[in-house]
Amino acid sequence: MIDRKPARFTGIRTYNDPLGRFTIRHPTDWEQFELEDGRDGVMWVPDTRDLETNFSVWLTELEEGVVAEDLEALKEGVDEGLASLPDCHVESAEEETISNIVKFERVFTFTHDGRTAKRKTWILYVDVWQMVLTWQGSTEEEYKYWLAMANYSFATFNLPEALWFATDRELEDYRKEQIAKLEAEEKQKSS
Predict the structure, then answer these.
(1) What are the residues whose beta carbons fall under 8 Å from the beta carbon of 83, sequence distance 6 or more?
(2) Rounded to whole angstroms, how far apart are CA atoms 79 and 50?
(3) For the segment 142-177, what is each residue's pLDDT rounded down to a tens digit?
(4) Chain-centre distance for alpha carbon 118
């Protein structure tokens, strides 16, 4: 590896998701790109000569909301997906629930284009959204070199109040009561 000065911040910028689903802060000098393959999200690259070293956030709308009790079934899918990557070696794995938000964190290496790449991934299930945050180094050295800056972006990822409200377990019964009440009123109006 070429000896180089440590990665340094020159400034910070806040990215606001156009649909209001999250905000995140990132280094100002990292280039921003739209995601390929029709994915909904955004990617930042510290060096445009190496697009495989990047931080990305992508979202998928789910057919139904996820709750904390779905953790084990989702964990099976996450682990199965990682196992499908060539030469995947999971270095660390954590999962947790925060009210009805389900979060997986994985750090792993895998073979990509003939070399060992490294990723840190958060997979969040927030009501009807799957949100995937990924820091990837095209090599283990690139991963490590930029990691402190990528960790800042992970640490500053924020959800809006509406999504926190939608995943609040204490409000779940209240929401169900209100929906049942509205459905009863609609049924009474139509009869």
Answers:
(1) none
(2) 28
(3) 999 999 999 999 999 999 988 887 777 777 666 677
(4) 16
Instruction: List the structure tokens of 8.
Output: 């340094």
Measured in whole angstroms, how far is the alpha carbon of residue 124 from the centre of its chain?
Answer: 6
Any idea which fold 12-190 has?
A: Protein Transport Mog1p; Chain A (3.40.1000)
Cβ atoms of 140 and 109 closer than 8 Å? yes
The answer to whether the CB of 26 falls within 8 A of the CB of 55 is: yes
- Domain range annotation of the chain: 12-190
Number of Cβ atoms within 10 Å of the Cβ of 10: 8
Bridge partners (DSSP) of residue 12 are: 27
> Is the Cβ–Cβ distance between 121 and 110 less than 8 Å?
no
Q: Quote the CA–CA distance of 61 and 132 in Å, as a whole number.
A: 12
Spatial CB neighbours of 136, under 8 Å, sequence gap ≥ 6: 52, 53, 54, 55, 56, 117, 118, 119, 120, 143
- Give dist(CA 133, CA 45) in Å, integer: 14
Per-residue model confidence as pLDDT tens digits over 76-131: 999 999 999 999 999 999 999 999 999 999 999 999 999 999 999 999 999 999 99
How far is Cα 41 from Cα 111, in angstroms, rounded to an integer? 24
- 23-27 and 115-126: which strand pairing? unpaired
